[in-house]
UniProtKB/TrEMBL annotation:
It comes from Lichenibacterium ramalinae. It comes from the Bacteria. Residues 1-22 are annotated as: Disordered. The chain crosses the membrane at residues 34-55. Keywords: Membrane, Transmembrane, Transmembrane helix. This is Type II secretion system protein.
């Protein structure tokens, strides 16, 4: 409304062919609004996809940490609970972590060729531990353990 004449505001022709109010202010047309919503939808979709990938990666990392803790515990207990001896053990409950521990006696090359003298007081064992989680993640650790010769 024109404040001086109290009638409708006169319109003027724009270079684009659209009519604008005489005040010079123009609003958004439907096409511009739809494009803005499309850009917003694509941006939000990318953000939500990134969040979902980050959460999935965090879950996988937590499962790997749990498998690593289990493998570290098994490796630390090797030789403490039972005496070290060449063996291949496995265990775990269905639906939970499954583990396998392989223990192999290591004979140094110098000990194989030595014929004289008493055997060394310590025996060396290579302990290999593998833990598999139900989701497919897992961990594997290995270490050299020493035990008194029996």
């Amino acid at each position: 409304m024109d404040p001086l004449t109290r009638g409708p505001a006169p319109r003027r022709r724009c270079p684009g062919g659209r009519n604008r109010p005489a005040g010079g202010r123009a609003g958004f047309v439907l096409a511009e609004t739809l494009v803005a919503f499309a850009v917003l939808a694509v941006g939000l979709g990318l953000i939500f996809t990134g969040i979902a990938v980050a959460l999935r990666s965090d879950g996988r990392a937590a499962a790997n940490r749990a498998a690593l803790r289990e493998a570290q515990g098994l490796l630390a207990r090797a030789g403490l609970v039972e005496p070290l001896a060449t063996s291949d053990r496995h265990g775990g409950e269905p639906g939970s972590a499954r583990w396998r521990m392989t223990i192999v006696r290591v004979v140094p090359a110098a000990a194989e060729t030595a014929t004289a003298g008493a055997p060394p007081p310590l025996a060396a064992f290579w302990v290999d531990v593998t833990v598999s989680m139900p989701d497919g993640s897992g961990a594997a650790l290995a270490g050299l353990k020493l035990a008194q010769r029996r």
